[in-house]
């Protein structure tokens, strides 16, 4: 990220390292895909995840008295950092640098914090509040990651790369799919420990097979949209996203095959060794496809 003898660059580097520690500590599936990225892009993804995770910890771990004030303080500091490019909070600092470089800001950050705030007040979601929550808590995170994928390697003076509608749809769908899968596997914890019911129309203690089937169809549609967007991504992000999608697809398949009463009893997981194998297979497939595409001769123009 720069010369460590430069105090300003050293601070930026330390902030980036801090966000990486947060990602490594809290997510194996997401972190596995991030390790497949080039250094600038990985630093950007670390920064996005770092802020998202800290906000999530405020509402899930700290919660209770004072949590709303802490979330307000984090949002306010993030807003200030977006404007001035500096924060005394290392995670916020890394996020602000990434946002300014990659071209996202309040359009994504404001809905995110709005969704986080509902976790402190809303206990049961209907379809409208559920969709609004998923957008703010997950789809905008997908959009931030997409901006990183397209612009993390952008040089000074180069224009921002603006995604097309397929990429935007895919990024939102991918964020939504990851969030929804976590809703289903954390159904018991969310209800028993946090007092929340995210899935509209689903009573956590009376989960039915048809509830699981309908929910899995919804997530499968999101994953299909995400896969359709893969060809538009740069090579390394394409490989990383494909690897992460493979892990979550296996998790979804396990949830679909698990009796509803068992979903309520224990958290369904994909073993770490299987995650690595799935990610490696998906990444290898994308890499082989890229190599084959690069080697394919371009069709010659035929002169009439």
TrEMBL record:
Taxonomic superkingdom: Bacteria
Protein's UniProt keywords contain rRNA processing: no
InterPro entries referenced in this protein's UniProt entry, alphabetically: Isoprenoid_synthase_dom_sf (IPR008949), Squ/phyt_synthse (IPR002060), Squalene/phytoene_synthase_CS (IPR019845)
Pathway: Carotenoid biosynthesis; phytoene biosynthesis
Single GO BP term: isoprenoid biosynthetic process
Signal peptide: none
Keyword annotations from UniProtKB, A to Z: Transferase
GO molecular function terms noted in the UniProt entry: transferase activity, transferring alkyl or aryl (other than methyl) groups
Pfam families: SQS_PSY
PROSITE patterns linked: SQUALEN_PHYTOEN_SYN_2
PANTHER family membership: BIFUNCTIONAL LYCOPENE CYCLASE/PHYTOENE SYNTHASE
Protein name: Squalene synthase
